[in-house]
From TrEMBL:
Residues 63-281 form the DUF58 domain. This is DUF58 domain-containing protein. PANTHER family: BLL2464 PROTEIN (PTHR33608:SF6). SUPFAM superfamilies: vWA-like. Residues 1-26 are annotated as: Disordered. Residues 12-22 have a biased composition (Pro residues).
């Protein structure tokens, strides 16, 4: 924000009235919409082999074999390699039962959106979709939320659990039978690491804006520890207005996390160029941080439903593993 200066001669207009929000869907309504409008579109594409697309190897060791080009470096068995003098990797059998966790951001920045839905509603859609897919195969899913509305629901199976996850995300106050009051992502990831006793699939759903402002060091270490034992996917939710600053004249902007305000002349090309540089720096820092701990990134935008990005993400994972 220090790069953005007020333009001389421009006076701030009175704040515009806040537009009315569309009524928020109840958990049961959202679940039915996802079942009939979204999940069916994934039939035959994702459900048949969703474990191979989302879920990495289990901890059930099957054999050790020689390294082949394309094998993951983190699978190398250094003890066998040292004894034999040749690179060997560990090969695992899939666990019969999958446990998945949704770690979801409920901070104030998630209440923003200028397109189809707010970011928090997009996170809710993804959480409901993931819970339905996993529960449909008889596996378990749990959820931990961090931020002002921190909460927890233990992993269970079935459609009722998908409804419970959506219910947790719909609360305006902290809730859950065993609330984890995690203020930020680093604390939430540490809480998840302490909770998990067996290898799991973990989705971290956030806009990562607060983490970007603090720098990757505050949460990358916790994410790296989690990724060493579990299959972790970062799901970033964003809005087009956060990526490209529109030329709409004077704007009064308010930081939802701190309450600070800034008057901005978006018609100034220098202001828009500075914003573009900041967005590129923030995006590059996030991608480097995730790559350093071998965590894949799924990008979702409020301007479209999550099906298209989800299918492209799983296709890319399938191609890389093949």
């Amino acid at each position: 924000m220090s790069l953005l200066r007020r333009r001389r001669g421009v006076t701030a207009p009175p704040p515009a009235p806040t537009p009315a929000r569309p009524p928020t869907e109840r958990p049961a309504q959202l679940l039915r919409r996802l079942e009939f409008g979204v999940v069916r579109r994934l039939d035959g594409v994702l459900f048949g082999d969703y474990r191979g697309l989302f879920y990495g190897p289990s901890l059930d060791l099957a054999e050790v074999r020689e390294y082949q080009p394309g094998d993951e470096v983190r699978r190398i068995d250094w003890n066998v390699t040292a004894r034999s003098g040749r690179l060997h990797v560990r090969q695992y059998r899939e666990e019969r039962e999958l446990t998945a966790w949704l770690v979801i951001d409920t901070s104030a920045s998630m209440d923003f959106g200028t397109r189809r839905v707010l970011k928090r509603d997009l996170a809710k859609e993804f959480a409901g979709l993931a819970a339905l897919v996993i529960a449909r195969h008889g596996d378990k899913v749990g959820a931990i939320t961090f931020g002002p509305r921190a909460g927890f629901t233990p992993p269970r199976g079935g459609r009722a659990q998908a409804l419970a996850v959506l219910g947790l995300l719909s609360r305006e106050t902290p809730g859950g039978p065993e609330t984890h009051r995690s203020a930020d992502l680093a604390e939430a990831l540490t809480a998840v690491e302490r909770t998990l006793r067996r290898r799991s699939l973990v989705f971290v759903v956030s806009d990562f804006l607060e983490e970007a402002s603090r720098g990757p060091g505050s949460w990358t270490t916790a994410l790296g520890r989690l990724a060493q034992r579990h299959d972790v996917v970062a799901v970033r939710v964003s809005d087009p207005a956060e990526r490209v600053l529109p030329d709409v004249g004077g704007l009064r902007l308010r930081d939802p996390e701190t309450g600070g305000e800034l008057w901005l002349d978006t018609s100034d090309p220098g202001v828009r160029a500075a914003h573009a540089r900041l967005v590129a720096q923030r995006d590059g820092a996030l991608r480097r941080a995730l790559t350093s701990v071998q965590v894949d990134l799924l990008d979702l935008g409020t301007e479209r439903d999550p099906v298209g990005p989800l299918l492209r993400f799983t296709a890319a994972r399938r191609g890389r593993r093949t």
